[in-house]
C-alpha cells in the first residue's frame, strides 16, 4: 500500500466524554432510515437492511467515531490500540498478528452485522471478511478535516446514529470556527511535527491540523508530501518556531543540532496526545485547539471566551520541560529509527517496523 496510507498514525491513553450537544444544524440528519446503502472505497455498494446492533471496528479511529457519536454500546469488537477509549477493554480484541490488522476467525465468531475497516487495512483482508459472509464498509483515505466530517457522517448513517453523528460534526465545526476567528489576521509561526524520525507533509490531515491551527507546516514548505522521514540538516536549516511532538515519541532527539534549535532553547515544544494528532477522527479537533492555544494564547482566549472546554488543559496538552513523561508500556522501543549514520539495511528494517506499528494505531 502507499506510504501515505501506511503512515497515517498512532495513539495512546486518554478518555473524554462525547462532545457536548451542538447547534441546530445537526437536526438536518436527526433520523436514520433503513435499508441504507453507501458506496465504499472499493466501489462496493454496502447495504444494510436493518439497523446494525453488533459492530466490529478494525481501527482505533473507527472506534473513536463510534464512541463520539454515542454508538459505543453497539461495538462488540475492537483492535488492541483502541484500549484508550472508555469501556473498550470490555470489548473483544480482534487484532491480528504480523501484517494482519484483524484475526478473521475472531471477527467472524462475533457475528457482527457490520465491520468498519480503515483504508490502511488491506483489501485482501476486506475480501476475506466479505467471503465469510460479513458486511464490511471500507473507509476512503482521510486527508482533511472535511474527510473526517464525511467519515463521521457516513458512520452515523450506517449504524443508525445520524443524530449523534450530526451533533458531533456540528461540534467539530463550531470549535474549528472558534480557531479560525482566533487566527484571522495573525502572523503564522513555522511549526514542525516530529514522530519517530518522520513528519507529515502536503496531502495529510496532520498538515491541515497545523494549518488550521494557524501555523505554517515546515514539512510542506520544504516540499515533503505524505509521510516521510526528515533529516536533521533540514530541520536545523529551517529552525522552526515550534516543534510539535506526541506522547508516544515525546522528546526532541538529543543531538547537537536539535539542542540548538530556537524552539528547544526557548521551550517552544508542544506535546499532543497521539489519539488527537494522528487519528482521523473527531478528537483531532483537540489537536487543533491545543496548538492554537500555544501559538496565539491571547487571541484564542478572546475567541474562546464563550466556549467551555470539555477537558482540562493538563489532559489535553503538555508543555515539554527538561524531564519527559514516562512512556507507556505500549510505547514502541526504537533508539535509532530514521537517524543519520545507519546502514541501508538497518534503516529499511527500522522503516518497515515503524510502518507496521503506525498502521495498527490509525
Describe it.
The protein is α/β, with parallel strands linked by helices. The protein folds into two domains: 3-170, Nitrogenase molybdenum iron protein domain (Rossmann fold, 3-Layer(aba) Sandwich), CATH 3.40.50.1980; 186-332, Rossmann fold (3-Layer(aba) Sandwich), CATH 3.40.50. 38% of the residues lie in helices and 13% in strands. The chain has 16 helices and 14 strands. It has helices spanning 3-6, 60-68, 104-109, 123-131, 145-159, 162-183, 205-212, 218-221, 232-238, 256-259, 262-265, 274-277, 284-295, 297-303, 313-316, 344-360, and strands at residues 36-39, 45-48, 55-57, 75-78, 92-93, 114-117, 136-138, 190-193, 198-200, 216-217, 227-229, 242-246, 269-272, 318-319. Strands 5-4-3-6-7 form a five-stranded parallel sheet, with helices on both faces. Strands 10-8-12-13-14 form a five-stranded mixed sheet. Strand 3, helix 2 and strand 4 (75-78) form a beta-alpha-beta unit. Helix 13 crosses helix 14 (297-303). The longest helix is centred in the middle third of the chain and has 22 residues, at 162-183. It is globular. It starts with a helix and ends with a helix. The model is unreliable at 1-29 and 308-353 (pLDDT under 50).
Amino acid at each position: 500500500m502507499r506510504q501515505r496510507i501506511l503512515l497515517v498514525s498512532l495513539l495512546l491513553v486518554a478518555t473524554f466524554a462525547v462532545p457536548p450537544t451542538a447547534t441546530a444544524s445537526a437536526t438536518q440528519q436527526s433520523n436514520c432510515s433503513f435499508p441504507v446503502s453507501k458506496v465504499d472505497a472499493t466501489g462496493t455498494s454496502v447495504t444494510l437492511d436493518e439497523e446494525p446492533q453488533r459492530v466490529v471496528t478494525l481501527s482505533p479511529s473507527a472506534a473513536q467515531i463510534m464512541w463520539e457519536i454515542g454508538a459505543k454500546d453497539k461495538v462488540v469488537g475492537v483492535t488492541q490500540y483502541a484500549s484508550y477509549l472508555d469501556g473498550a477493554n470490555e470489548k473483544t480484541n480482534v487484532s491480528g498478528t504480523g501484517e494482519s490488522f484483524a484475526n478473521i476467525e475472531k471477527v467472524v465468531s462475533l457475528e457482527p452485522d457490520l465491520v468498519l475497516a480503515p483504508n490502511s487495512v488491506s483489501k485482501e483482508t476486506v475480501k476475506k471478511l466479505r467471503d465469510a459472509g460479513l458486511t464490511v464498509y471500507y473507509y476512503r483515505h482521510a486527508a482533511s478535516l472535511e474527510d473526517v466530517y464525511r467519515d463521521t457522517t457516513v458512520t452515523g448513517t450506517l449504524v443508525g446514529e445520524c443524530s449523534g453523528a450530526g451533533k458531533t460534526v456540528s461540534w467539530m465545526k463550531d470549535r474549528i470556527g472558534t480557531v479560525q476567528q482566533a487566527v484571522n489576521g495573525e502572523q503564522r509561526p513555522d511549526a514542525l511535527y516530529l514522530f519517530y524520525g518522520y513528519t507529515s507533509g502536503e496531502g495529510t490531515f496532520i498538515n491541515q491540523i497545523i494549518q488550521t491551527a494557524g501555523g505554517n507546516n515546515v514539512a510542506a514548505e520544504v516540499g515533503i508530501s505524505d509521510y516521510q522521514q526528515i533529516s536533521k540538516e533540514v530541520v536545523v536549516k529551517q529552525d522552526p518556531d515550534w516543534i510539535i511532538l506526541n506522547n508516544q515519541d515525546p522528546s526532541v532527539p538529543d543531538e547537537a543540532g536539535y539542542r540548538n534549535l530556537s524552539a528547544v532553547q526557548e521551550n517552544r515544544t508542544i506535546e499532543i496526545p497521539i489519539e488527537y494528532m494522528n487519528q482521523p477522527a473527531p478528537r483531532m479537533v483537540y489537536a487543533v485547539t491545543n496548538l492554537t492555544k500555544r501559538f496565539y494564547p491571547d487571541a484564542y482566549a478572546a475567541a474562546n471566551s464563550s466556549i467551555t472546554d470539555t477537558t482540562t488543559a493538563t489532559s489535553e496538552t503538555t508543555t515539554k520541560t527538561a524531564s519527559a513523561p514516562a512512556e507507556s508500556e505500549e510505547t514502541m522501543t526504537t533508539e535509532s529509527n530514521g537517524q543519520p549514520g545507519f546502514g541501508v539495511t538497518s534503516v529499511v528494517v527500522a522503516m518497515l517496523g515503524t510502518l507496521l506499528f503506525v498502521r495498527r494505531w490509525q
